[in-house]
Amino acid sequence: MDELSLAESRLLLALRDGKPHSATSIAGFGTESEALVAADRPVRLGLVAMQESAQQRAELSAEGRRALAEGLPERRVAKAIAGKGPIALEKLAALGVPAGDVQVAVGWLRRKNWAKVEKGPAGTLLTVASDPAADEQETALREPTKAPGKVLADLAARGLMVLKESRSRTLLITATGAKLAANVQFDVFDTSEVNQVTPELIAKWATMSAAEKAKQRLRPFDFDVPVTVPSPGKPHPLTHILSEIRSIFWSMGFTEIAGDYVESAHWNMDALFIPQDHPARDMQDTFYLAEPASLVVGKGDLDRVAAVHESGGGTGSTGWGGKFDRAVSQKALLRTHTTNTTIRHLAAHPKEPLKAFGLGRVFRKETMDATHLPEFTQIEGIVTEPGATFDTLIGLCKVFFARMGFPEVRFRPAYFPYTEPSMEIDVHYNGRWMELGGCGIFRPEVTKPLGVRDNVVAWGFGLERLAMMRLGLKDIRDLYISDVDWLRTAPLR
Ligand code: PHE
To answer: What pLDDT does residue 120 have?
Structure first.
């Protein structure tokens, strides 16, 4: 057990006689609360026993004080009519009984058996034979401290008394406490306690005599005292992961690119050689906008992409055939992937080697469940340079996920209209594979018309699923529920 503080030692000594002491009068303590503060740890350690009891105190209300001065209503009526024979209720007013008191008075005259009450053809008649002796309610009004609880409760119900509860505490030393009290070596009343060690105190200490030092006690630390855990501000776990992803790409020499949520079908789909009748373009999958319903796309862009879709546009492909619909291409929508930003970047810089990544919100008509959100974030990127190959892509994906803390990844063949070959990437977590996104090498239909010469390796991963695994969440929706306890305790690593 830790050493006793000065106040605790004083308390134990004050209780040494082994008798119960009211906490309001402990020798050496000015107030009850001082004594209770000192008793807190001794009580927790079983050195002192504390007993609490509640007492009721009765006080006269304003109405009660009037009753004490003028008599209870039933007393006033009894006095007015004692020995006068039966009196009709209506006549009481003439005898000076206030109308408001009559009902109460009649009720209690009856209950206290002070009056005979008869109902006759002439109305209610009261008879009080002689002025009755003082009853217990009247005695209680005069001396509430001596009155039985039941009578006080009746008076409280009549609104004549107010009952208040007060608590008192008694402190009693235990056998363990007594043993410790016997060991207190110093003079508790001629010693002062040092609560904080300051540079000044340390300097002074060197100059102090042994006798002076003996009168200074260092207050012991209490390591078990309950304290509030500080919760300083910190970034949201998702924000934190986003900045981690940025540093990974930056450290590999990537540039960050970004674009708008509102996009034309042209840049979201057509420029990526997604056929205009592709099922994912349906209203069931894509949010088309009413306002603006369309976005203007440059004639050069429309001509080039139309040629690719209709006949391959000199890329060596036969295209999708049919007639390319320029109105469909200019429909406005909420982007369904961040590959729109990638293809715009590529169109703007067709002749340069590029290493670019983007982090952005995308929108799909998904039914929300534990692993799907209709709005989520993609981690998108491309590399194009002489010598960029399939291996470049696989290597980049592996390095990225390993640096995010997932060394085990798996690639499965997949299909996207804009890449060939195409793959889906799974990450191993908690004994199962979780699908995290797609990747591939852009098809010539996408890159050639722009004048891009080298391979373009590209990927798009889902941020929230990655975050879910990193944070050990079972439900993706929890990321966007601002549960304060979770936000406080979620680790940022
Ligand atoms: N855009 C794809 C998706 O949203 C991911 C992807 C990006 C696939 C780039 C291949 C190349 O799922």
So the answer is: 79
Tell me the pLDDT tens digit for each residue of 323-352: 999 999 999 999 999 999 999 999 999 999
Q: How far is the CA of 34 from the centre of ligand 1 (A)?
A: 69
Nearest-CA residue for ligand 1 atom 4 is 337
Q: What pLDDT does 1 receive?
A: 44
Angle between helices 32-44 and 6-14 (to 10 degrees): 100
Cα of 263 from ligand 1 centre, angstroms? 16
**Is residue 309's pLDDT more than 70?**
yes
Query: Is any atom of ligand 1 closer than 6 Å to the C-beta of 381?
Result: no
| Residue 379 near residue 461, CB atoms below 8 Å | yes
Is the Cβ atom of 360 under 6 angstroms away from ligand 1? Answer: no
Q: Which atom of ligand 1 is nearest to the CA of 339?
A: 1
Most confident of 28-37, 179-188, 195-204, 260-269: 260-269
User: Which among 338, 364, 416 is the best mutation to test ligand 1's pocket, defined by most ligand atoms within 8 Å of the CB?
Assistant: 416
Distance 458 CA to ligand 1 centre (A): 7
pLDDT mean across residues, the chain? 92
What distance in Å separates the CA atoms of residue 300 and residue 293, rounded to the nearest whole number?
21
pLDDT confidence band for 103 (50 / 70 / 90): confident
The DSSP output letter for 385 is S
Residue 416 Cβ inside 6 Å of ligand 1? The answer reads: yes
CA of 461 to the centre of ligand 1 (A): 7
For range 207-230, the mean pLDDT: 84
CA of 432 to the centre of ligand 1 (A): 22
Q: Is the CB of 268 under 6 A from ligand 1?
A: no
Please check whether residue 468 is in contact with residue 370, taking contact to mean a CB–CB distance below 8 angstroms.
Answer: no
89 to 75, 93, 108, 118, 132: CA distances (angstroms): 15, 8, 14, 11, 19
Least trusted range by pLDDT, from 113-127, 157-171, 193-207, 348-362: 113-127
Q: Which of 336, 339, 424 to probe ligand 1 with, by most ligand atoms within 8 A of CB?
A: 339
Dihedral angle, C-alpha 189, 191, 197, 199, nearest 10 °: 140
Would you say residue 227 has pLDDT above 50? Answer: yes
- Separation of alpha carbons 110 and 103, rounded Å: 11
Q: Which atom of ligand 1 is nearest to the CA of 382?
A: 9
